[in-house]
Amino acid sequence: MAYYSLDEEKNQDKEILFNDDKKTSKKRKLKKILIISAVIILTLGGLLYYKASSIFSKISTRGDGLLSGLFKSESDLKGMAEGRINLLLLGMRGSNMPGGSMLADTVMLISIKPGENKIAMISIPRDLYVEIPGHGTRKINAANSLGEGEGSGKGMELMQQVVQNVTGLPVHYVASANFQAMRDIVNTLGGIVVHLDKPFSEGSQFVEGNECGGVFSLPAGDVKLNGDQALCYSRARYGSSDFDRARRQQDVLIAMKDKALSLGTLTDFSKVNDMANTVGENVRTTMAAWEMQKLFGFYQKLDNPGIIHKVIDNNPENGLLYSTTMDTPDGASYALLPKGGNFDKIKELCQNIFNEQAVQSITPPTNGYAHVEEPKTPEDVKKLQKNANKNSNVNANANTNTNKNSNSNSNSNKNSNANSNKNSNSNKNSNSNKNGNKNDNKKKN
After folding, report:
1. The pLDDT of residue 289
2. Distance between CA 169 and CA 349 in Å, rounded?
3. Is residue 203, in this structure, part of any structural domain at all?
């Protein structure tokens, strides 16, 4: 038989009470932690929401905030009813920068077809000669600058009209970004990676002014680029062409998208905050704040979409454009015109772009890009125009000689026919005289 003293019972009671107090204390601490965490999360969430709303409102030409989209869904986005959203992306140097600060040297139509889980990227060359409403015929890159001269945001509206006329597609939204936006966003992302099948080099474009280190080069393989390198890679064209540059811009844009949407980036508040600040200062769009939010959320739901890449070019084999030089309001200039004299083939291409093969990731083709020579400087344009004038004179002389020979042959034939007619008439007269003499003799006999 076991005996327990009253002291032992008291000790047990004390121990139970002590344990209960510990449990209660832990619960209270946990509750406090949860409350504090909730407050922090809500505060950060509120700050992010406020930050996002203010940034979106700042870059939108429409000026409304996120609250206006509380009762809207993704189906309210333009183009969703037709199953295709078209966004025009413009890239330029930026205001107050030398070298045509507001000329849109990147003109890229990004088309999203959610029903097929596909995205198409169509680059339109800056030298395409088009009709710009209210400004006559000019290069397409001038539309943004001409529009901005009429008021802030008018450049995007004018580019929207022009691209719709060229592609035959409705352009639902427009966004523009300057050089600084690309440089800062890539640096905030910690760099991006592009794949090169062979080394890349630009040896002349950046020498004057010593931009990009003068001679810009990259090795083959997977190459990590910082903001300055990504910008130089996207701008280089003298050693290749404007068409190759457009393809590289698509490479860089995809790499930026992949890095920006990665889990590590989206969960890093400082990176998101830095990118938001950069976007606010250097990006503008015709989208409302709530449309940006809905489009971003919608894009995140796409399941690793296939991407179709297209650059409208003057490739001799299958290009839809041809190169020429002409006198323009800006002087003698190199320009690109549509084959056939209209944009019908380009419209057909854009309409049926999703019939082409999509890929999960973009890499340059193993055989490189088709290189098409184009002038890089005003001196090159003058040389082309001089050669064109020579060819024109040669053709004119050839036509003159042909006409002379033709006239000579014509006169020869005329003389020949005249002589032939004379001989014929002479023979007729001779025969007539002979017959007349015979008849006279018969009468005499």
Report:
1. 84
2. 11
3. yes
Q: Which residue has the tokens 């811009």?
A: 249
CATH code: domain of residue 157? 3.40.630.190
Report whether 87 contacts 175 (CB < 8 A): yes
* 237 and 268 together in one domain: yes
Q: Within this chain, do residues 77 and 47 fall inside the same structural domain, yes or no?
A: no
The tokens for 17 are 């009470």
Start-to-end Cα distance in the chain: 191
Q: What 8-state DSSP symbol labels residue 357?
A: P
Q: Which residues partner with 106 through β-bridges?
A: 91
Residue 441, pLDDT > 50, answer no
In this structure, the strands spanning 306-311 and 118-123 are parallel
Residues 345 and 209 in one domain: yes
Q: State whether 33 and 151 are in the same domain.
A: no
Whether 233 and 302 map to the same domain: the answer is yes
The tokens for 369 are: 């890009």
Cα gap 355→351, rounded to integer Å: 9
Residue 432 has pLDDT above 50, yes or no: no
What confidence tens digit (pLDDT) does each residue in 86-118 have?
Answer: 999 999 987 665 555 789 989 999 999 999 999
Last residue of a domain, one of 359, 388, 417: 388
Residue for token pair 């945001």: 153
Structure token digits, residue 404:
């002379």
Q: Establish if 358 belongs to a structural domain.
A: yes
- Full residue range of the structural domain in which residue 28 is found: 23-59
Distances (CA, A) of 257 to 117, 156, 186, 362: 16, 22, 10, 12
Q: How far apart are CA 303 and CA 119, in angstroms?
A: 11
Strand partners for 89: 108, 175
Residue 397: inside a domain, yes or no?
A: no
Backbone φ and ψ for 85, nearest 5 degrees, come out as -105, 130
Query: What global pTM score does this model have?
Result: 0.75
User: Is 35 contained in some domain?
Assistant: yes
Distances (CA, A) of 265 to 25, 228, 270, 283: 38, 20, 9, 20
pLDDT classification of 393: cutoffs 50, 70, 90: low
